[in-house]
Structures are given as structure tokens and as C-alpha cells.
Amino acid sequence: MTPSYWFATRPKNAEHQHPFLVFDRQDHLHFPLTRFAKEARSRLSPKTVQTYLYALCPYFTWLETNVWQVRMRQTWDASPTQVRRSIDDYLVQKLQCQLLPHHQGWKYVK
Questions:
Q1: Secondary structure class of 100 (helix, strand, coil)
Q2: 3-state secondary structure of 87
């Protein structure tokens, strides 16, 4: 089984104020996602933040393990255009969604 990104809730006795700790495929703390979760928690419920992390962790894992994304050196912190392209690829290839153009210029998922 391929290692994947994962997260855990903050232990009650921890001194830091991060509500969730996010770890990469090597079980190292992924600080950008951990910080994202903290910032999101300041505006959203814990369950909503968990839902976001449940969606983001598989994408981050896929981005590091999909042969084509690796060959193209796609990263989560690339330019917005590159990230949109990798998200489109993830939705179509991995999740088998259809992306349909909207008349206002954006795409929607079917």
C-alpha cells in the first residue's frame, strides 16, 4: 500500500494551537497544510475543516505518486495555472469526474 498524506487532531495536552496536524507520505509534519487547517478553523467548524483535509490529503498524495504529475514536476505550490491543470487531471483521471465548461469561462464538475 502506498503511504499517503494523513492528519490527526491536536492532542488535548499539546501546547501548540494547531487544531490538526497534517503529515506527508514520509510521516513528516506538512506545515503548510497544518497552517491551512489552523487558519480554516478560525473561520469554520472542526468538521468542515476535517472535510477539507479529507479532500486535500488524497490529492496531495496523488500529486506525488501519479507518474505523469511526477514527470511534469507538478507541485501543490506551483503557479495557479499549473495547479488548476493538476486539479483537472486529478478530477478526471483519479476521480473519473467530467469537467464541463460554463458559459462564464469556468468549469464545473459533473
A1: strand
A2: helix
User: What SS3 class is residue 6?
Assistant: strand
pLDDT category of residue 68 using cuts at 50, 70 and 90 = very high
DSSP 18-78: -SEEEE-TTS-B-HHHHHHHHHHHTTS-HHHHHHHHHHHHHHHHHHHH-HHHHHTT--TTS
Give the Cα-Cα-Cα angle 51, 52, 55 (nearest 5 degrees). 90
> Would you state the cell numbers that stand for residue 101, as one nine-digit string?
465548461
Of the candidates 49, 83, 81, which has an alpha carbon nearest to the alpha carbon of residue 63? Answer: 83
**pLDDT confidence of residue 45:** 95
Bridge partners of 21, per DSSP, are 8
Q: Which residue has the cell 479529507?
A: 54
Cell (9 digits) for 43: 473561520
Tell me the chain's radius of gyration from C-alpha atoms: 16
Tens digits of residue pLDDT in 37-65:
999 999 999 999 999 999 999 999 999 99
